[in-house]
Amino acid sequence: MAGRNIAAPLLFLNLVMYFLVLGFASWCLNRFINGTTNHPSFGGNGATNFFLTFSILAAVLGIVSKFAGGNHLRAWRGDSLAAAGSTALVAWAVTVLAFGLACKQIAVGGHRGWRLRILEAFIIILTFTQLLYLLLVHAGIFSRNYGPGYRDTEYGVGGAHHDPALKGSSAVPAARV
Questions:
Q1: Which of 32, 71, 87, 99 is in Cβ range 3.0-4.6 Å of 127 for a Cys bridge?
Q2: Which helix H or strand E contains 172, and what residues bound it?
Q3: Which residues fall within 8 angstroms of residue 152, CB to CB, at 6 or more apart?
Q4: Rounded distance, CA 153 to CA 140, Å?
Q5: Paired strand residues for 43
Q6: Is the overall model pTM greater than 0.90, yes or no?
Q7: From CA 133, how far away is CA 70, in angstroms rounded?
Q8: What torsion do the CA atoms of 138, 140, 142, 144 make, to the nearest 10 degrees?
Q9: What's the mean pLDDT when you consider all of the chain?
Q10: What is the rounded CA–CA span in Å between residue 7 and residue 9?
Q11: What gap in Å lies between CA 40 and CA 113, rounded to an integer?
């Protein structure tokens, strides 16, 4: 239960931050495409175009992964873990790529406006918070206390009980009372 209780606020925090990254990166990419990089709040260098592209991609994948994660946190079963875990892993991987480009942009230097610096900071923070979220979502693999390492007893019940000894035959046993 602890993994679920910690992952839910972290999911919401990451969702809000990914939306902010999407907004800042979209604004900056629009300025970059229009050729208005001399705007006081923009600036940039040779790594900016790649950084903005991967930031937008990371933001979109991060937002989509939070929808699957919200469904998993609601159900908290092993079968919902597959979608939540895989989308969170892909979102984290692309966020790590954007993180590397943010580091490169900082290392190259030059004038970077406040919007680019905030975008860099959000990507750096999201790299670590998304990793923590990914670990919390997968915590149930290791312990039943922290995740979906169990099955609800009512889940999947309702159909006729099939005896494994009758495998391959057309006989269906009567429902047990």
A1: 99
A2: none
A3: 77
A4: 17
A5: 112
A6: no
A7: 12
A8: 170
A9: 82
A10: 6
A11: 6
Residues 140, 150: Cα–Cα separation, whole Å: 8
Question: Is 134 in contact with 62 (CB distance < 8 Å)?
Answer: no
- Residue-wise pLDDT for 126-158, tens only, equals 999 999 999 888 875 655 554 545 444 555 545
Concatenate the DSSP letters of all residues of 72-86 into one string: HHHH-SHHHHHHHHH
Q: Angle, nearest 10°, between helix axes 114-137 and 48-75? A: 30
Nearest to 62 by CA among 10, 118, 140, 5: 10
Q: Cα angle at 41 between 39 and 43, to 5 degrees? A: 65
Task: Say which residues have a Cβ less than 8 Å from residue 24's Cβ, sequence separation at least 6.
Answer: 55, 115, 118, 119, 122
Q: Where are the domains of the chain?
A: 2-150
Nearest to 48 by CA among 107, 134, 94: 107
Task: For residue 36, give both structure tokens.
Answer: 């208005």
Tell me the pLDDT band of 166, cut-offs 50, 70 and 90. Answer: low
Across the range 75-86, mean pLDDT stands at 83
